[in-house]
Amino acid sequence: MSGTYLGMPAFPEAARAAVRDETLRGNLRHATHTIRAKRAGAVAEVPDWAALREAGKRIKDHTLRHLDRYLVQVEESVTAAGGLVHWAADADEANRIVTRLVEETGESEVVKVKSMATQEIGLNEALEAAGIRAYETDLAELIVQLGRDRPSHILVPAIHRNRGEIRDIFRSEMGEWGRPAPDGLTDTPAELAEAARLHLREKFLRAKVGISGANFVVAETGTLVVVESEGNGRMCLTLPETLISVVGIEKIVPTWRDLEVFLQTLPRSSTAERMNPYTSMWTGTTDGDGPRTFHLVLLDNGRTDTLADEVGRQALRCIRCSACLNVCPVYERAGGHAYGSVYPGPIGAILSPQLRGTGSAVDASLPYASSLCGACYEVCPVAIDIPEVLVHLRERVVQGGPATRHGNRVVLKPAKGHAAERAAMRAARWAFTHPGALRAGQRLASRTCRFLPRTLPGPGRAWTGSRDLPEVPSEPFRDWWQRTRGGRDGTK
Amino acid sequence: MSSRERILGRVRRALADVPRDDAPYERAIARDYLREHGERTVAETVELLAENLADYRAIVHRTTPRELPSLIMRLLAERGPRSVLVPPGLPPEWLSAADPTLVHDRAPSTPRELDEVESVVTGCALAIAETGTIVLDGSPDQGRRRITLVPDHHICVVRVPGQVVSSVPQALERLDPARPLTWISGPSATSDIELDRVEGVHGPRTLEVVLLEDRPAD
Lengths: 492, 218
Description:
Chain A is of the alpha/beta class and 492 residues long. Chain A is built from 23 helices and twelve strands. Chain B: Residues 95-212 form the LUD domain.
């Protein structure tokens, strides 16, 4: 994934700074609560939501289970419609392909539709290194790019910024990139949107190369689908002469009809709308309408490694709606940057460590960036059991074991730093299989409870650094059960 | 080995657990969801379309074939554009009473030239009542995708009830995936500032939808 995030601290350190930032917490609380209530309303409008969710899950699962066949079908149908298909095993290869394709047009600037895949591979940085300037055109991406910032939300990358901060960024930075912000720009959202419209129009009108991702690729027809709100997507997809779409291999759906499920669940889950303002669908090239050349770059970059994990592969069902971020109590407090990845929140906590492996400090910590409350699973429109995958990945971090990296089977070593946890679990196993010792230990703890410390000493200190120790009752449960015959004799 | 072979090989190895007789597509997917939500008469479906269009800030008008030219003339006069873009196959009578200069879209027209035109009038492929969506498919009465994108004011005529479907599943059944499709639900908007919806970014900031009664609704 992107080099932008190399050397990120583990989640707890990054989150500790974020939760102390009161502006950030206020911005996040306001935004996530606004969308949460609206989403619930949009979902309640369709009585068959549960059936749509189940169908979406099954379509994605079926596609993943036969992905080789559908990939070949996509290649055939896109090629038959006049598109050119490229395959990229990793981020470097995808960046090399796109850079070469842009260079072949002779252009030195491109306009971009918001795309998670191109952020994941660090495409803008790779193009810059080749002397090609990439202009982000989604409003939130523009705010992030002008502010030399990093995205913190899948749908609204600048969710950590409030209107006042956005106005300040526009005032100070727009001039560097093109048309400056209008004089007297205020912080009303309508005026900020107008400033972005004026700033970007010039770039749209002269653009010769557009770069996008896609929400869906239909195998039977070769159709690509981009779902958006502002119209910047339509600009990038129709005005340039060359269009390059970088798409993860998990974005495939088998048939045209399958879109009837996702075009109902995605808008309601992401922006809480019955339908997003604009959806573009194109199949190859069309004479006299839109780009004359269309390239599709199919991206692996860790997806096949994720696919190899029978529990973890469900993360590839994700349609990037971001509903799980908006309901997550951890995301609401820590913000997106702490996750050290373009995929923040609950889905990021299971996707990033699978796409990148659990080798780095941040990736090994991500499966723990959750209270396992399950709200993410409940709102997920493709029913990804995020808590199940989190627990599975925790096990992999602590115990090690088989995994797939870069297409090769490897055996991971247990992570360092979990020795105390493993020792505690071994001790617990011993105690629970030796009832006599357990009973004696519980009685001892009850009798000495007022002498017990509030925090653990030694290797246990880290654990109690962010948790209170449970209070020890004055009588063990099993003694109480025996004494009162399970409470039947009425005594306490 | 090419990257294509490498990726396909990785996929096949990753799926070693999938049995040969895994359920085929038709059996693997349960379609227990509804084809449309609720039972409505044709007239009620048109009414729902009008409501949902207006809910997302499209301006809705209803008219008859006889009144259409004067309605379009009035809508254009209210905005006062000097010129209006016309797709090649627009019924000429629609703009027979319009005052602004008609600009016919031509293949060599550059985006910059289109940016000089303030308004555009088109038909559509269909409209979806449940979501308040109009869909364009590039037919001659709608033109290239760019002509409904660059001007700031779009007037779209929907023949009711003939072009109206209830739901997203019904819309996909009627659309041809080989054509370039644009689904439009209200004017351009963004939720990027504090996750609150604001209308009017890059696409047309004013969307007027004319519901043209092509036969009396029952």
